[in-house]
Amino acid sequence: MRAVAAARRQQPHAKAPGRGSPLAMSGAGAASSCRRRRQLGGALLLLVAVALAGVLGGAEGKAHNYEDALQKSLLYFEAQRSGRLPHSQRVTWRHHSGLTDGLEQGVDLVGGYYDAGDHVKFGLPMAFTVTMLSWSLIEYGGDVAAAGELGHALEAVKWGTDYFIKAHTQPDELWAEVGDGDTDHYCWQRPEDMTTSRQAYKVDRDHPGSDVAGETAAAMAAASIVFRDANPHYAHLLLHHAQQLFEFADKYRGKYDSSIAEVKSYYASVSGYKDELLWAALWLHRATGRADYLDYVVDNADSFGGTGWAINEFSWDVKYAGVQILATRLLLRGEHAAGHRSTLERYREKAEHYVCACLGRNAEGGADANVERSPGGMLYIRQWNNMQYVTSAAFLLSAYSDYLAEAGVGAVSCAGAGEGDVAAAEVFALARAQVDYVLGTNPRGVSYLVGYGPKYPNRVHHRAASIVPYKHSKEFIGCTQGFDHWFGRRSSNPNVLVGAIVGGPDRRDRFRDNRENYMQTEACTYNTAPMVGMFAKLHRMARQEREQGPTPAAPVTSTAAEV
C-alpha cells in the first residue's frame, strides 16, 4: 500500500486550512503525512527519477566543507532553545524566554525547543527531532567526536530530553504542547517579548495520545543509548521514562489530535499512532535488548501496517520507512529469534521499496511507486517544506547502505527492476547527492543551510531572527508591532539563523527568498536533525579522500557512548 497525505502549517497571511487527502492503496494501513499545520489535498505523482549525475547542476565539481556544515547545524538548535539559556549559549542574539511555561497548570514546563519560526512548543515534532539527533549520534557518533562537536551534539539532545522529563509528570500523563498556535500566529514578536497564550495541553488515560507518547518514548530510548557510558545515571532515567511512556501509549490508545484539538491545524497525526508504537518498540529493543519489544514489533507487523505500508516518505508524522529500516537492520545482523525471520523479511521488502522509490527504480506500482526528482536532482515530495523529506531520506539511505555493507550485502532488490538489483553503493551516492544539493550543488547555487557558503537565504521566516536582538534593544515589541516594523522589511534579517535548513525550492528548483514565503523560507528543527550525522560522516569521508584518495563508504558503528 502507498499513501500520501499532507498537513500544512498556518502562518500569517496564509489561506484557510486545506483538506487532508490521503490516497489509500490496496490492503490495510494508515495514511502517510507531511509537514504540518493545514492539510494539503491531493496525492503527488511520484515520477521516475532523473539520472544521478544531474544532481550536479550548475555547481559541478564543487567541494563542500562538511565540517563547517556540521558546526553550523548544531548552532541552530541553540537558536531554537526555549527557557533560561545557559552561560555557554553561543547564539548570543537569543535570550531567556517562556519562563512561566506550565505555571497556570502548576507544572514546570520551562525549556525545550521552538519547532520553527514561531513560539509554540509542539511535543510530537520536538520528540522526532530528538530521536533523529540521537540516531545521528548512534550511527555516526565517532565521526561527530572526531570533528570536535560531540559535546555540542550531546547538549542538543539533552536540552530536549531534560524537557521531556519535566513534561512526563505521571506514568500515564504527558504534556504535549505549550502555547496556542492560533494566537501565536497573529503576532510577530521575539520570544523574549511573548504576550501570547502559554496554555499547556496534556494527554492522559482519559485523553490518550499514543502517537506523541510513542514518539517521546522513542526519543528517550534512543537518547539513553547516546548517554549510556558518558552518563549512565541519566541514561537509566531516560530509559525508565521511555518504558513508562510506551506502556502508557500502548495501553491507552488514541490519536493525540483527538485529545488536543488545538494541535489539529498544525501537527495533525494524519498517519495515526500505530507507526509510533512500532517505532518506539524498536528503539526500546535497541536500548534494552529485551525480546518482548521485538516480539511486539513482529506480532503487530500486519495489524499496525508495518509490513503492509509501502511508503515513499519519512517525517515527523510518518515513521513507517524508519520502522522498516530498523527492523531490517535486525534481520541483517541476525539479532532475532528464528520465528521472527519471515516477518522481518517482509519488513525488509517494504524498507527496500522506500529505498528504491528514492532511487526511482521501482518498476511496479505505477506512477506513484517512485519519488519525483527536480531537474537539479532534488527528491521532491510536496510543496510545503520539502527539505524535511530530503534530509530524512538522505539519512535513511546512508544508514541503510551502512547496514548492507556491515552485513556484506552488495545490492538492493527493487520491485520489477528488469536490469537486476541496485548496487548498495548507488544508495549512498544518492544520499550524498541530496546533502550536496542542500549545501549548494544545485542549479541556483544556493545553500539551503543558512550561514553556509557565499549564497544562502537571508530572509528566513523566523520571528526572533527577523527582529533586532533583545540584547541590543530591550524595548518591548508588541504583538502587531513586529508586523508593522519588521515582518515586511525587504532587507536581510538582522540575525543570521545559522545552521537552519529552510523549506527549500519547488519541484522545478525555484526558490524565492522572501519572509512572507513561509512554505520555502521557514526552517524546522527536524529538517536539520538528520543532517548532523550526515555532515559528520561526509566530513570523515572527505578527509579520507584527501589523504588516501576516494574510498568506499565503509560503515561506521561507533556510537557517542563508545567514543
Which structural traits does this protein have?
563 residues; mainly alpha; Glycosyltransferase; 3-stranded antiparallel β-sheet; two-stranded antiparallel sheet; 17 helices; 7 strands; globular; disordered N terminus; disordered C terminus
What does this structure look like?
Belongs to the glycosyl hydrolase 9 (cellulase E) family. This protein has 563 residues and is mainly alpha-helical. It has a domain at 66-337 and 447-546: Glycosyltransferase, CATH 1.50.10. 41% of the residues lie in helices and 4% in strands. The protein has helices at residues 66-79, 123-146, 150-167, 181-184, 210-226, 232-251, 256-259, 274-288, 291-299, 320-333, 341-359, 387-406, 424-439, 463-466, 481-487, 518-521, 525-548, and strands at residues 121-122, 173-178, 200-204, 372-373, 379-380, 411-412, 422-423. The strands form three sheets. It has a three-stranded antiparallel sheet. A hairpin with a 5-residue loop joins β4 and β5 (379-380). α2 packs parallel to α5 and α10 packs across α11. The chain starts with 65 loop residues before the first helix and ends in a 15-residue tail after the last helix.
- What's the count of strands? 7
The biggest beta sheet is recorded as: 3 strands, antiparallel
Low-confidence stretches: 1-60, 554-563
Q: Compute the gyration radius: what is it?
A: 22 Å
According to CATH, what is the topology of the domain at 66-337 and 447-546?
Glycosyltransferase
The name of the CATH architecture of the domain at 66-337 and 447-546 is Alpha/alpha barrel
Mean pLDDT: 87
- Derived from helix and strand composition plus strand pairing, the structural class reads mainly alpha
Termini distance?
41 Å
Q: State the helicity in percent bands.
A: 40-55%
Our estimate of the beta-strand percent is under 5%
The top level CATH class name of the domain at 66-337 and 447-546: Mainly Alpha
Total helical elements: 17
List the helices and strands in order. HEHHEHEHHHHHHHEEHEEHHHHH
In which order are the strands of the major sheet placed? 1-2-3
Q: What general form does the structure show? A: globular
Protein name: Endoglucanase
Enzyme class: hydrolase
GO molecular function, one term: cellulase activity
Organism: Panicum hallii var. hallii
